[in-house]
Write a structure and sequence with these properties.
The chain is mainly alpha-helical. It has one domain. It has 14 helices and no strands. Helix 8 packs parallel to helix 11 and helix 13 runs antiparallel to helix 14.
Length: 283
């Protein structure tokens, strides 16, 4: 009798299959590497033996294995026929070959100057993924996204720390869907952001709830900027490096951004909940 089945369990139908291994209608669930990676990045605590960037390094080849590249190329080609801004961006095919020292020329407080300060003080590298010539439209999109990511931190207001990462992630997760007509294509272009952001949401709730409100603020800011702004991911940012930050935001159509200070919270998260980092910031 239906009445004997708990409400939340109603409608479940046993599935019979001769397969001896997991079979699902979801290609993501079917992939054992992705299942293991997801369990690890969702449930683990932070530790120096596996820095968070290494998690994404493991994820990228898994995603490549799952992708239907021919279908994505077809969707991009079709989108270009209906989306003049996207078509112009691909037709121009602009990407940068700048080096860190090229930014020393920019004044403090300018978009390029702020980047130079952050990149040198943090001892970061510009080229996160080894360089390769783009061979497809998706390759070009990914190359350019990597080149603009750090500037999206600055323009959208997310600090260069692990809580600040949520701002550009959620800017992309809203802005791309706003400016790409085909939601299936927008989803394909947002895979890195949605999987990457899970680390900073689930792990924070499970292990670092002291900074959950900071995570929420970063997500809200990223969403607000993405929903209100022009297609920043299509912009030629190099033309604006010389401008003071607020002028660059205005010229690029970035709206709703304020610069969030999440340094202490990001350090606390990265240090596996070292409470002394939050106390020091409060003093």
């Amino acid at each position: 009798m239906t009445d004997d089945i708990p409400y939340l369990a109603r409608g479940v139908m046993p599935v019979e299959t001769p397969s001896s291994v997991l079979v699902s209608s979801s290609k993501y669930l079917n992939n054992p590497r992705l299942r293991e990676w997801l369990a690890m990045i969702l449930l683990r605590r932070n530790g120096p033996d596996k820095p968070p960037p290494a998690e994404m390094w493991e994820f990228l080849p898994i995603l490549e294995e799952l992708r239907d590249h021919a279908a994505i190329e077809d969707m991009i080609t079709q989108e270009r026929k209906e989306n003049p801004a996207l078509d112009a961006w691909f037709s121009e095919g602009h990407y940068s070959t700048y080096k860190i020292e090229d930014f020393a020329q920019y004044a403090p407080g300018s978009l390029g100057g702020i980047f130079y300060q952050w990149i040198t003080e943090g001892d970061y590298e510009i080229q996160i993924v080894p360089w390769s010539e783009p061979k497809s439209q998706l390759d070009f999109y990914n190359l350019r996204s990597g080149q603009t990511h750090d500037f999206e931190h600055i323009l959208c207001g997310g600090g260069f720390n692990f809580m600040g990462e949520l701002v550009p992630y959620w800017y992309r997760l809203t802005n791309v869907f706003k400016h790409i007509r085909n939601p299936e294509l927008a989803a394909e272009l947002s895979m890195i952001q949605i999987f990457g952001s899970l680390r900073y949401t689930v792990r924070t709730i499970l292990h670092y709830p002291q900074v959950w409100e900071t995570a929420v603020s970063c997500i809200q800011q990223g969403m607000k900027v993405g929903q209100q702004s022009d297609a920043l991911f299509l912009a030629r940012l190099e033309d604006y490096f010389h401008l003071p930050l607020e002028e660059a935001r205005a010229a690029l159509g970035v709206r709703g951004a304020v610069s969030l200070d999440t340094h202490a919270e990001g350090a606390f998260w990265a240090a596996d909940g070292d409470a002394s980092l939050l106390r020091q910031a409060a003093e």
